[in-house]
């Protein structure tokens, strides 16, 4: 299949043209003979599931703008993602700003039918509730794997709350709902970067009862590449690779930008001091090398909380890291 051809930045400047993600072509402009594309990115401009600051609805557009400076060669992995993959920007999913559950159903339907079945999807939020929709789509597109998808969840928060304000749907509950529906296998799920304070000690019960692996922020922050957190993540990834050899399973990555300390990512709705540096966030993702990806999302970017744009720049780089991680493992 022909690889994606990017505009030459030395001929066509990065600050010119339509702001698609990474300057990759619009999916609608990809000729039939160049399909299926390997990865398609789409935005979900929705923040109706937040419990604190709104504004993540503007994340997809701002991340696309910040992504104009992305390049194609990943130095640590030694891969040129455009030689390995074809990529396209599929635009934004339709949303219902006043109706959370209708939005999740609509986004899941949009993502399930998007592009070709072989295409993996990157969803850009939006608040973390939208992860449920893309996980559901990935589960269906990957053939409804027995036991559910494996999941790598990078976040300051557990996001397995049952109810907030009497509602079972929101950005605090996407993984609880996905586990309940069998979309995710909790015994093959790891939540990375978790830190307090919590509402109650019982917030940890769901993960403990269902076999979710927790790696707390203090196991990673400031510990370096030989720290206990990265060692546990590498062991988890090795287990997935072993399982995949026997089961054919794949892993979904959900990355909440608030896992990164607000000193490095102030543009988020539920900032949690004491988090990862940008470099540590990249180290977390790179430690997963070799896993097979079913899809991914990056969420909870609030551009208006960060006039400097460092959060959107980081989010665009995280998306590049995820695609590079997949390229390095194939």
Task: Provide a compact summary of the structure.
The chain starts with 38 loop residues before the first strand and ends with a helix. The longest helix has 20 residues, at 228-247. By secondary structure, the protein is α/β, with parallel strands linked by helices.
List keywords for this structure.
330 residues; alpha/beta; Arginase, Chain A; 8-stranded parallel β-sheet; two-stranded antiparallel ribbon; 10 strands
Distance between the termini: 15 Å
List the secondary-structure elements in sequence, H or E: EHEEHEHEHEHEHEHEHEH
Domain unit count: 1
Helix/strand/pairing category: alpha/beta
- How much of the sequence is in beta strands? 15-25%
Largest sheet: 8 strands, parallel
Number of strands: 10
Strand line-up across the major sheet: 4-1-5-10-9-6-7-8
Mean pLDDT across residues? 93
| CATH superfamily membership | Ureohydrolase domain
Helicity level, as a percent range? 25-40%
Describe this structure in words.
This protein has 330 residues and is α/β, with parallel strands linked by helices. The protein has a single domain (21-328), classed as Ureohydrolase domain (Arginase, Chain A). The chain has 9 helices and 10 strands. The strands form 2 sheets. It has an 8-stranded parallel beta sheet, with helices on both faces. α8 links the parallel β9 (251-256) and β10. α1 (59-66) packs across α9, α4 runs parallel beside α5 and α8 runs parallel beside α9 (310-328).
